[in-house]
Records
---
Amino acid sequence: MTASDPENSHLLWALRGGGGNYGVVTALTYPLHNVSEVVGGIITHPFADALAAIRYYRDVSMAASDELKVDHGIGSTSDGSKGVNYVLCSCGGQSDDHTVHNLQSFGEPIADTVATTTYLTRQMLFAETFPHGTLHYWKSGFLPELNDQVIETMVSCYTAAPTPRLALNLE
């Protein structure tokens, strides 16, 4: 049975969560795309630039193409201090190249590992950060809008964090 907008739309509604009280999935079919090389990596900024860096992330990511994934994180840098990261992966074309260049040109990054690489290598970007057998706690929520009040709250909360080993991430 197919569940889509034109065909069995009531089942599609249920599969999407049914208003929070219903959902049954027996099989999913995904169309796959051959992706070999991507442009990806991490651009790190000092925590002192957090407000401006997150605002810039908001503006750039809202205008990015669907082929460019830009995540944002406040967390620890390679030297263990607090920092701001842009984590990106692009499998798009020239418009993405321009956006990636804009992200690389913002402020004064303290690290930039963005390069052309294989998709598999990009997927392993955080493998050492989360080694097998370690325990991590994740909690998620959805934001209707990444406004200045949310950004200020994130930076304020992370400023008070007792360790840079905590992370606040936006995808």
---
Amino acid sequence: MHVLICTDGSPSSEQAAVLVERLSLSSTGRVTILAVAETEEEHERLSGVLARMLADLGGARPELETRIVLGNPPELILAEVEERPFDLVAVGAHGRRGLTRFKTGSTTGRLARELHLPLLVARNVPDQVRRILICTGAEAPSMETLKVGSQLASHGPAEITLLHVMSQIALQPESTADELFASAEGAMEQGTREGRHFHEAIRNMRKIGVTAKITPRLRYGLVVDEILSELQEGGYDLLVIGAHRRPGLTRWLEIMLDDVADHLLSHAPCSVLVVRPADTV
């Protein structure tokens, strides 16, 4: 895996390097740290920031590369991933000049919408990543989210919860009351669509190499509210969500999906991984 860590020199953006180390990604592949300066005067300060981030990643070695570039942050980051084969982009949750502020036009907001690679946003990074929440829509595009989340989780001992949020209103005529209010375990026993998805997801995660505990979970209600409630109640260290373009969606529905991802990026109390792979463009 080749990880691109982006920093504007803010303490929060340095958290991205800490999270990459906590997930053991720096010891299993290549890492490039891209420091973005908007003026020539920032070059010396960014050199010190890069030295600290290298230390967070275990010290300089051939697999770790650092670069300082001058210009517009989102344009430079998007150009970098077009020119070189990265697998993951990591940023901090708050930048000095709004580098990663979550609002229309911000760098992270633009990356979350335009970057066709998984985006890892670091926030409140703990000493050890112990619990990961992976959200699944129980549909085919969710398998890519599960795959990427599992690849990250397979490097460590973190327990994983698979969460699917169901509406309390039947979306299919054949849905029964039992299906609408079943637990994850009950859905798996009954062989509902969600239950079958959980079985397949867990089977695929084991094949990828996840050895830690995997717990399926169903919640009922509004997607964003239920995910944020689960995060608060479960004390998770990382949230994994998908932001997939799917054939057949209207532009309005695509905007709604982007708004869900933006809202979770803004309000999640922990780090967030947004999966938007290239093949969903």
---
Amino acid sequence: MLRFPRKRTGRARQDLARLMLCAGSVIAMLVMSPVASADVAQAGRCVGLTCGSPGDPAYVPEAHGLVPALSGLDQVAAQKQSGFYDIPAPVYDGSVPPRVVVYLAASGQSEDMPASVRELPAVTDLQLGAGWDRSGGTLVVIDRGLRYVAPAQTATASRRSPKARAANGVPIHGCQDRYFCQYGAQDFLGGILTWYGPTWYGTGWHNLGGEWNNITSSMVNHRDNGDSLMADGFEGGGTRYCAQQHSEDSRLENNPIGDNAASSVALLPSTDDRC
């Protein structure tokens, strides 16, 4: 005798419906959540002032929370009020730049900087006359070892010899020892994107995003612990430029990488001459 399956009871139908709903939710999350996918792709180095945790010297508690969202470093530098801002990462790993929180020390407002930001290497190493004037300069602190000085403030470096030094012994181009510095204009002028060697060396290739993609026109590598590389493609692809430790180049147009072409950077970890 043939037996046909009984119709599902109301309870069974409800359980099946819940199962299908859960499966559908998971599929929807996988298909419709590009932010989550981007986070997975960004499994490399954390950039921004929200990195670290309580007790970590690089932890900035004031950076956690809702902050104004802007389009990039230039828009942050144009703000009149110091504070924390959210922008697409100017330096990032992976294929999509994440959003990061940075701090703006607006012109004449450096004393408003929270102690947690002031104590980061990117700030403590700054000296008067080294590319940032506290009374009138505009500084953006990107993370503990990455900072940006707005173009209008670096123009005072004029076109003096790169070997010239200010009264306090700091090179006139404003790139201090242990740092790798990229300039937005030739002859060490324009905005400066500055990498702290001890924080960034040996961390691999990092892509340049926003207005710093394809903008570097001169560079200074004052690191003590290795050469630095730039490439005109992402992740180190394309033509590369190798900067020996303690070297300077006021015009990249005379090199294979060319002017305004850098798209990624890597700070090599050893003292060996790789160039």
---
Amino acid sequence: MIGFAGLSHLGIVSSIATASKGFEVVSYDPDGARCRELSDGRLPFFEPGLPELLSSSRARIRFTTDLTALSRCEVIFFSLDVPTDDTGRSDLSALEGLIGSVTAQAAAGAVLIVLSQVPPGFTRKLAGSLKINHNRNLQLFYQVETLIFGRAVERALHPERFIVGCADPHDALPTLYAELLASFNCPILPMRYESAELTKISINMCLVSSISVANTLAEICEAIGADWSEMVPALKLDKRIGADAYLSPGLGIAGGNLERDLATVISMAHEFGTDAGIVDAWRSNSRYRRDWVLKILHSEVLSRSDNPTIAIWGLAYKADTTSTKNSPALALVAALKPFPIKAYDPQVVLNGEGLPKFVQAKSAIDACRGANALAIMTPWREFSSISIPELREEMAGRVIVDPYGALDKQECARAGFSYFRFGSQVQEA
């Protein structure tokens, strides 16, 4: 039997995916309300495909507040999301408390796996603590999680590889753990604890570097008349970059996980005397690009109109998630506080406390009625199907700021809009 301890986003998705592979799963969390809603088939967040996966797997998974239920599990994952503060620093206290409670209940010989993201050195220290405080032959591993909000089901069911931190990477993995990993039919890469912990950070560092390159060059495109979207296919045909390279400009780094890893690297550089100047540059670039929409709104609307109304589509930090952690949309809402704002998001309902001129609309079109400008902050799929002529009729102004290209720029220009998108010059009729 496979156990999961901690039912935040990571634990819920991972435990359901494991049950979908035919394994009997016990999922523990001290939150009784959460366990009840999951037992009833209700999810506490939006994730495409997850309701269907839970429905098809419910016969093999049990959600419980009974900690002793984990004592019957041969393999137990610690799957609690680790929160971060505004600077990206992790708060490990809840995870450490959970580990202490669970290990006290674990059966002799149980396999314990840290799935939560932890800083390098955490698992080795934990392994030492287990040896000192217990004599039950508990085996400890660290497994890198690579779930992505909005694509968590896809990533959980079809992982590219499993990265497993081990006390000794030359030893064979325990039988049930090995069977579980093999059921996903992907490469398994054992390595020492510290290598696995740093691999997770390295993956996100490479992603941030690609985003920073795209942001920097997209801005140059906007200035000289080049178009970043025309350039990307050529870059991806270079084998040193690759067909799957992430080359999309963005409104700064958001979501919490990338920020955490940058903060961790900077902290380690200070501790060990290594160079992390490039990380400081990435964070500076992120802060700079987050204000891209606000700069355009200021030059095109706010400086030219008295008390203009701004429509905002999207409040989540990215499409297909309800997470607003470090969302550029919320930063924009805060910056526009003196002005009337009409916002719409398919999943996120924002508490407008402290925002006297903020209104949340019931539809995308409703948000645009009488608006002097539209800012599309989250590229939800439904936005691409909205009628441009209808937008023209409903909006009082003619400015659309669409960083990610949710709308067709040529059609927007034909409708008489001034259209702004990452990596290209303004498109006008």
